[in-house]
Automatic annotation (TrEMBL):
Native organism taxonomy: Eukaryota, Viridiplantae, Streptophyta, Embryophyta, Tracheophyta
Domain of life: Eukaryota
Name of protein: FBD domain-containing protein
Any matching Pfam family: FBD
Residues annotated as domain FBD: 402-438
Length: 476
């Protein structure tokens, strides 16, 4: 039907439009049914062309509560918005999409947003993929956001624009904000002007500071493409936080955080040119996930055995740049909001490094760990250097308190001597250990048979521990 209307012809034969007595069946449809049909077209242009079916539909098109304009040239878009504008008309949804085939200057984007504000939409989605003019850093042309006083949801995907706020005025109804691919937005000024904000998503090319103070915010998702200098978050209702630093953390990076109801946390550092967040001299943290489950009655989980355990997942890789200062693991974890956890999952890109000291320092930082899972990944083939700082401690003779550790699983175990030494320290320290499962690497060969025999003998030294050894085919 939509395809035939787009061709400009009458899309239904007369015999289908009229009964034998001459009554126009399409014109006789109730308004609610026609509205439902027009809305489902998801295109204002297609809805207007339905007037070919009936003159009455043309009048109903001007009363649609939802308007979607897609792939329309900017000049035609201005005319279309002016054509449907009537005094006092408000919309439940206004959606505008301008492709990169029609790049707009900042003043045209500003004019378009103010035209959209006149419809007072409850939900406004604007996607403009092409920008004419400067768009890097502070030199980007500014676009002032109107105060969408009725909007509950605002989604702007506008490439390279630096958004500014009006000198006065709030966004009293906004519950959800999504700003994607913008150049900059002042969160410290925006968030306090949204008293009902519950969900905030920002993807910014030049977001140096993440300053969010909100009593209502529950979900925060931030993607920063440049170096981040400050993260200051105070959100007593926040339950989910995701932060991706695609550049790196500034050398003078500062962090303050308060979110007592937090349930899910993800930090991601994607820069390979600097340590960003270092563990010692060679290791850098790239991803941190923390799940904090709730009790059935809704109260926050704590440290007692009756409450569900917290689950910490870390991805750690060797850094390209070696740092001089050795930073404590426990200090780093507390800095990034992690205090107590029961399940620890590690993904380590070992690159032939000795990873035993790293794992033991993580275990020593939280002795309440009940389950340890380690996945070892080779990130490059070159051998560890003779003077590499990865093995400059007497960690092999350590004994740490692991009275809660019950299960250990290592995937990618190659049977090297330092891996066996780590296993010995864990067995010696974990008095309540029940099972150890080793999934052997495909690189296990005859050169490591001696070490594997030593591993097998450990089951005799610690008979209370069930030792499972799996070959890469999955056989035990």
């Amino acid at each position: 039907l939509r395809r035939r209307m787009a061709c400009g012809g009458d899309s239904l034969p007369r015999r289908l439009r009229q009964r034998a007595d001459g009554m126009d069946l399409i014109s006789a449809l109730p308004d609610d049914l026609i509205f439902e049909f027009l809305i489902r077209l998801r295109c204002a242009r297609a809805a207007t062309r339905t007037s070919l079916l009936s003159r009455r539909w043309r009048r109903l098109c001007n009363r649609l509560p939802e308007l979607c304009f897609r792939d329309i040239a900017p000049n035609h878009l201005d005319a279309a918005l002016a054509g449907v504008a009537t005094a006092g008309r408000v919309l439940s949804l206004l959606e505008i999409h301008v492709s990169d085939r029609h790049p707009l200057q900042s003043h045209r984007i500003s004019s378009l947003l103010h035209a959209a504000a006149r419809f007072a939409p409850a939900v406004l989605n604007v996607c403009i993929l092409g920008l004419k003019g400067k768009w890097s850093g502070a030199m980007a042309d500014a676009v002032q956001l109107p105060c969408f006083r009725r909007a509950t949801s605002l989604k702007l995907e506008v490439t390279g624009v630096r958004f500014t706020l009006p000198p006065a005025g709030d966004f009293p109804a906004l519950e959800s904000i999504s700003l994607v691919l913008c150049c900059h937005i002042d969160l410290a000024n925006l968030v306090p002007r949204c008293p009902r904000l519950r969900k905030l998503r920002i993807s910014s090319l030049m977001l140096f500071s993440v300053i969010v103070h909100s009593p209502s915010l529950e979900d925060l998702d931030v993607v920063a493409h440049g170096p981040v200098r400050r993260i200051h978050i105070s959100a007593p209702s926040l339950k989910k936080l995701q932060l991706k630093a695609l550049g790196c953390l500034d050398n003078e990076f500062s962090l303050s955080f308060s979110a007592p109801l937090l349930e899910k946390l993800q930090w991601m550092w994607c820069s390979s040119s600097s340590p960003s967040v270092g563990f010692g001299q060679i290791w850098r943290l790239t991803v941190l996930n923390l799940n904090i489950p709730k009790m059935a009655n809704g109260s926050e989980s704590g440290s007692t055995d009756l409450q569900p355990p917290r689950h910490l997942w870390l991805c750690i890789e060797p850094s390209v740049i070696l740092t001089d200062a050795v930073q404590s693991i426990d200090g780093q974890l507390s800095r990034f909001l992690v205090t107590r956890f029961s399940f620890l999952d590690l993904m380590i890109g070992k690159a032939s490094h000795v990873y035993g000291p790293l794992v033991l320092r993580l275990l020593a930082a939280n002795t309440s760990i009940q389950r340890l899972r380690v996945k070892l990944c080779e990130v490059r083939e070159e051998a560890c250097s003779v003077n590499c700082p990865c093995d400059h401690t007497n960690w092999r003779s350590q004994r740490i308190s692991l009275s809660n550790l019950k299960n250990v699983e290592i995937e990618g175990f190659a049977g090297e001597s330092h891996e066996v030494d780590l296993l010995k320290v864990i067995l010696r320290s974990a008095t309540m250990l029940q099972t150890v499962s080793l999934h052997l690497s495909r690189k296990v060969s005859s050169n490591t048979n001696g070490c594997m025999e030593e591993v097998s003998q450990l089951s005799k030294v610690y008979p209370s521990v069930i030792l499972n050894i799996y070959h890469h085919s999955g056989d035990r």
